[in-house]
Amino acid sequence: MAVVRIPPVLRPAVGGEKELSADGASVRDVLESVAERHPDTQAQLFSADGQLNRYVNVYLNDEDVRVLEGLETQVGDSDTLVILPAMAGGARR
Amino acid sequence: MSPSGAEVLREIKSRIDEVDPAQVREQSSNGAVVIDVREPEEWAAGHIPGAKHVPKSYLESRIEGAAPDRAQHLILYCASGNRSAWATRTLVEDLGYEHVESMTGGFTLWKDRGYEVEQPRTLTAEQRERYSRHLLLPEVGVEGQQKLLDAKVLLLGAGGLGSPAALYLAAAGVGTLGIVDNDEVDVSNLQRQVIHSTERIGVSKVDSAEQTITALNPDVKVKKYDLRLGPENIMDVLPGYDVVVDGLDNFPTRYLLNDASVRLGIPVVSAAILGFEGQLSVFKPYDGPCYRCLFPVPPPAELAPSCGANGVLGVLPGTMGLLQATEVVKLILGEGDPLIGRLLMYDALAATFTEVRVRRDPQCPICSREPDAISDEEMGAFPDYEAFCAGAH
């Protein structure tokens, strides 16, 4: 089971969890397993054609999966997937 | 009876080669190394441009640092031509240098002839005291402190991130701090915006920040921009700054800043915060990825938490703003490994730092091109630019 780190903006969609364990041999399998259990994450992670949304980065350990093999990148049990959507936020108000 | 010092000197001068200042100018441009053998305070008061400084009292131990090659043509000078004569004899007769000359008349004659003089910049006694803990660090020292004093840093926002960054950059002696903010101090800011104070509620943030900075360090010149950064003014504000500290609260301006900073070649130290978590990275144009390489498009408004009021732990922007200030100082000094091509995530509740790599995108719409090729129209552009976050600020 790989560990998936959930960013603050997605936490409401996964019941507030910071980390999930999810099964899957590839990045796609792992993220789909997350989306299956937490349907609210589906539209946030994937575009209509099943690709990763371009405003979401996913890292296998510390490497962007886009420079690996994208959603088909193989994931091992001891790997961590980091989901990172863009954040903007000084704290003006 | 032993000869007098004056007799010995005369005798030495008859043995060594001497050279007139007029020839020194010519020969230094032909590759001769000019070495000033006077004391540090004499050097500091002015010296021949391009000369190296090896005080006579350290001649034997330090000359190899300045002139490792014994066949190198060296010209030594002092104030009047006597100390340099002794030093020339030492280099030739004791240390085996082959081609050494002493400049007649020394620096006094050089100046009398009206030749150019380089005046090294020095710190005042007050500055030596103020920055003494910097001066003790070999990575900073007088030279590094001068770099800080010469540096111009632009802070986008005197808010949660900008407040601590501005305070520490001012304390460090960064000579010019530009501050862009069109807000006024509100009581709800004070939980984290530590550059302001209760008595300044209602005062413009740039004025309030200036007061605090000036009280902390009068060396710092504050340039106030009481405006909201936008496409209409960014190219008036950014040019001339060495580093930008980005504490922006919205995506449109963040993309605009990215594109303008790439075009101008200005590194941006960027941070973002939400709740108990922060992100930090350094975007140095063409040395590493730009913001568009990391996030080519912004998230839709419902996933962009900046578009509404969000909670933030007050100390978190303090932590992130100081990490920004640290990166700024490193960039100015040219020391250490800046956070270029890396994104650091800090989770305050877990007390963990996580780092991921950020690559340059060879297809990046902005930084894959030459700076001049980026047009005004393209800067800050992305789909729904106008509609994005409309009314959210």
Indicate the overall shape of chain A.
Answer: globular
User: What is the second-level CATH architecture of chain A?
Assistant: Roll
- What is the CATH third-level topology name of chain A? Ubiquitin-like (UB roll)
| C-alpha Rg of chain A (nearest Å) | 13 Å
Question: What is the CATH architecture annotation of the largest domain in chain B?
Answer: 3-Layer(aba) Sandwich
What is the ordering of alpha helices and beta strands of chain B? HEHEHEHEHEHHHHEHEHEHEHEEHHEE
Rg calculated over all Cα atoms of chain B: 28 Å
The helix/strand order of chain A is EEHHEEE
Domains of chain A, number: 1
| Major sheet of chain B | 8 strands, mixed
Structural domain count of chain B? 2
The CATH class name of chain A reads: Alpha Beta
Helical element count of chain A?
A: 2
Q: Identify the quaternary structure here.
A: heterodimer
> In percent, how helical is the residue content of chain B?
25-40%
Based on helices, strands and strand pairing, what is the structural class of chain B?
alpha/beta
